[in-house]
Write a structure and sequence with these properties.
This protein is α+β, with helices and mostly antiparallel strands. The protein contains 3 helices and 6 strands; from the N terminus they run αββββαββα. The longest helix has 23 residues. The two termini are 18 Å apart.
């Protein structure tokens, strides 16, 4: 899934009229009900900001590799984490300092029912990584790819 990492380009005028599912890119922040660890089956996860690490197309369906987002930033302070200060979070469209955990990812389709689509905007996209955190994301993407390649060789 991570083999087709996308690089953000400037937004063209026609891109804004296309559905979010066709324009979503690595570095976008979405609202998603990330599956809970060790939670009862009937407990519904809360909507939280999650980072799109990669976008891939397989058999005409778009897939997203999504990293868990948390305001408990120490969880993202590791080799696969992206820690946003309050200012970096604000520049990325978030209202609080947030950490994204590359150690906790899921692969979903763009029609996943756990995506929280804003009715007014008709999109789950709530922001985009600013420049400095985007550089960190690229390092995390590279490390995840190396981890995948190593696992494939075994």
């Amino acid at each position: 899934m991570l083999t087709t990492l996308s690089k953000r380009t400037s937004t063209s005028p026609c891109e804004t009229t296309r559905p979010w599912s066709e324009t979503i890119k690595a570095g976008d922040i979405i609202s998603f009900r990330f599956p809970l660890q060790n939670a009862p089956a009937n407990e519904r996860p809360k909507a939280r900001p999650c980072l799109v690490l990669a976008v891939s197309v397989c058999d005409g369906q778009r897939w997203l590799c999504v990293a868990y987002g948390t305001t408990i930033r120490r969880k993202a302070r590791n080799i696969l984490g992206i820690d946003l200060s309050r200012d970096e979070a604000a520049a990325s469209g978030l209202d609080r300092a947030t950490g994204f955990c590359g150690t906790r990812t899921v692969v979903i389709r763009t029609n996943d029912p756990a995506l929280c689509v804003c009715p007014a905007l008709r999109t789950p996209v709530i922001g985009k990584l600013a420049d400095q955190p985007r550089k960190r994301m690229r390092l995390v993407q590279t490390r995840l790819l190396k981890k995948l390649e190593t696992a494939d060789r075994r």
